[in-house]
Amino acid sequence: MTEKQAADHVANLELTALLQVATIAISKPADYVGLYAEFQQQPWAAILLRYNDFFAKCGIDPIPPEHFVFGPKMTFYQHVSSRLPDTELLSLYMVSGSNSILHQNPDALAISQNVNSKFHFAAHAPDFGISTPETYVTVKSELGSKEVADFLVRYADDAGAVMLKIPGLAGARNVTPVVSVQAIRDYVAEYEDDLPILLQQKLDLAQYTEMTVDLFVSDDDIHISNIREILFADGLWVGNFVTDRHALDAEQQEQLIKVGEYARAHGHSSKEGTNCGIDYFIGPEGDIIVTEINARWTGGLFPSQILARVNRDKEDAVMCFDIVPVDAIAEFLDFVEAHLPGSKGADFSTLSFGFSPFVQNLDGVSYIYVWQLIIGDFETFRQRKNAQLGERVLPTTNRIALPRVARE
Rounded to two decimals, what is the model's pTM? Predict the structure, then answer.
């Protein structure tokens, strides 16, 4: 890996800790879950038990602590593979080369690499009648071609209306807006000349609404399991907004089901069913344009599953990644416990369903990442949180611009 790829890899590993904790809540008590060994150290071990207690108090029956299997961050799968309980391995967040010691299935790996590839999707989506933005695929050595220049002339402007995508990790890494060939060259400078490059028209958010959805894909069924609107803070993706007002009409559902048919046709399916996420835009006339497929458990799947279990009144909800100063963790956890879903007579409720035990230093302050769910009146939540904890706790929630549908 290049220096940037190595740094991205470590960051991805540390954020995966949040998914491990969330898995405790979306599973069954008979299941087991793999967790980083760092969760066994204090104060993280005590905090992990408190999260388990949060889940139970919300009416969720979580995986019990005796079913936690631990492994160190950098050699996680190797250690977990030697400590697997006498049970069947049914699911992984994503089948990949890094966890091949667990699944030991080169065919499943090849399928995963294909259906999660931006380049494979760009090549085959038209065969299934899937609408995508205008796209051009090339390699680094061909950046000086007339075709690249023409594509930028057609779609680039001062706002950066061309998206550059290269192979990389999940979570929008290696995806960035560009306006010129030089900007592309600068971004890919550390890569080899045969690096695949995908250029794609950037859709205008003044006209299009950016959405994401999960599909359930099995050998004999494809259906939509949940719908979410993308949330931004300072122009960056931070989470999702969920409301019953995000219903899709029959034609829109048909368009999204085509993506499931594409995934299943390329092997992403099972008898029991598996997850497939879709990033898409809804245009001014209700038209669907698909930008990316994520044939795996998505970042929005975890909170959506938790939300389905605790949101008994079907209220609007915000789910987002955020940070908490280490010196404020105790007060933060007390605030969460006082406002758990199921609280009577409250304008809002909140549940922290994931955290990472890897401390981050930002501007001289030590933080941890958390994963937060806020149900009900989001503005009242912000006011109460700021009054009791201050704006430095969950600062991202202060910067989220709620979508239009939430303000109506």
Answer: 0.91
